[in-house]
Write a sequence for this structure.
């Protein structure tokens, strides 16, 4: 339940903020940015406010970093009365004010930011010193101070507009981040080298119709899809997870069409459209703070895919089983990526992601740790792509071979990997399903370490 602050509490908080400002200015004798949020009504801080505040800090950090400006001091405070951040910057105060006004004026969320700039003597820098107009009203666009004095809009109207701005901004930023990291994960996967039988930086593996540039074309076409899946997840977060899947499935069909258009009919990422689409939708259903928890994210993936195997393989017979996946399920009860996803991707959770993280902790590069994780994934899940290019018996033999290799060489060197690649290419083998899971591992690793 949101905490409603009183007028007395807000006045006390204002006094404490003024004292903190004076203390820091006296200590550092340089301009200060005091960043707070303009939240009307009695609720000044909750999860949504905090997310908006974090975005404001992110925008300011990005601007300062781009100019190679590093705060001499930074601190922040989070109370029911609101969030506060203090930056002491050894820079010209007009430059600092230009930066903060640019943030306040460039995005809708900026209207909720109060990024006050104070001179070393405590005097506030006004927008007029830069020749900028006064800040506009949330509702009508007229000068905000004029509307405030005349009480042109009710608190309820201002609150409704505030929550709408916050929700839209957080959804937009989360979707963009998820899409960016999903594309990055797919690019890392194709660039991981050497990968037995797969396209990488050194060759086409067992594929004659595609190369690394085909994959880059495909990834470039899929960015909007991952953003859409994340948005769908956010918009259906309060509904049954099955509704999320129903909506992203249509988006997935459209993404496949975009992929084939970009690659001139070549299937580079059909499996990834399925797995990464569900993963992005799961991120949308979860608050950003939980993105760093792979177990929570993968559990949400399982919820979204619940019942998928039974639904998609219902009523299969020898006469109507036409795809390799259908035949493998009918004759061998192999559920492929559907079963993995419905179970919360245990191959990723228990094998692939730990192998990736252990390799990096062992001192391997991300590339070499990825090679090791790929081999581990080959042993952990039924790769229907590999089976389709050979047989179930060959797949079982490959799994035994790779398990034996990892027992003898937990961290295979480049020569060992190249030899395995030659063997896969000679037999026309391609563990494409395992490669899709490797991309999932990369995405979860990025989320855990960078989101």
């Amino acid at each position: 339940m949101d905490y409603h602050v009183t007028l007395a509490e807000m006045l006390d908080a204002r006094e404490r903020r003024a004292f903190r400002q004076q203390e820091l200015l006296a200590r550092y004798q340089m301009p200060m940015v005091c960043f707070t949020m303009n939240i009307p009504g009695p609720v000044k801080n909750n999860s949504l406010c905090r997310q908006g505040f974090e975005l404001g800090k992110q925008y300011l950090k990005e601007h300062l970093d781009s100019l190679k400006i590093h705060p001499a001091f930074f601190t922040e405070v989070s109370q029911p009365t609101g969030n506060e951040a203090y930056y002491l910057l050894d820079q010209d105060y007009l430059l600092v004010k230009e930066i903060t006004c640019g943030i306040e004026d460039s995005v809708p969320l900026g209207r909720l930011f109060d990024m006050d700039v104070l001179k070393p003597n405590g005097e506030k820098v006004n927008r007029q010193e830069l020749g900028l107009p006064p800040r506009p009203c949330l509702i009508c666009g007229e000068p905000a101070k004029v509307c405030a004095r005349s009480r042109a809009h009710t608190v309820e109207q201002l609150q409704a507009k505030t929550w709408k701005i916050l929700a839209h901004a957080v959804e937009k930023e989360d979707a963009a981040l998820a899409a960016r990291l999903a594309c990055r994960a797919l690019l890392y996967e194709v660039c991981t080298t050497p990968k037995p039988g797969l396209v990488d930086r050194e060759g086409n593996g067992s594929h004659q119709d595609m190369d690394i540039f085909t994959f880059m074309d495909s990834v470039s076409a899929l960015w909007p899809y991952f953003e859409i899946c994340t948005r769908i997840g956010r918009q259906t977060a309060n509904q049954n997870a099955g509704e999320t899947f129903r909506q992203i499935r249509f988006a997935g069909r459209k993404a496949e069409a975009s992929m084939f258009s970009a690659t001139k009919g070549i299937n580079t990422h059909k499996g990834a459209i399925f797995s990464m689409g569900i993963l992005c939708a799961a991120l949308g259903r979860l608050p950003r703070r939980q993105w760093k928890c792979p177990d929570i994210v993968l559990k949400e993936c399982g919820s979204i895919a619940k019942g998928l195997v039974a639904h998609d393989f219902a009523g299969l017979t020898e006469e109507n089983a036409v795809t390799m996946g259908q035949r493998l399920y009918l004759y061998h009860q192999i559920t492929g990526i559907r079963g993995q996803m419905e179970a919360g991707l245990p191959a990723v959770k228990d094998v692939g992601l730990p192998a990736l993280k252990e390799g990096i902790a062992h001192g391997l590069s991300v590339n070499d740790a990825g090679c090791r994780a790929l081999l581990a994934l080959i042993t952990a899940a039924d790769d229907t792509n590999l089976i389709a290019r050979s047989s179930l018996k060959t797949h079982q033999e490959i799994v035994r071979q790779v398990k034996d290799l990892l027992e003898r060489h937990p961290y295979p060197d480049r020569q060992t990997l190249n030899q395995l690649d030659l063997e896969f290419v000679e037999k026309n083998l391609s563990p494409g399903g395992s490669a899709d899971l490797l991309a999932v591992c990369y995405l979860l690793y990025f989320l855990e370490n960078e989101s």
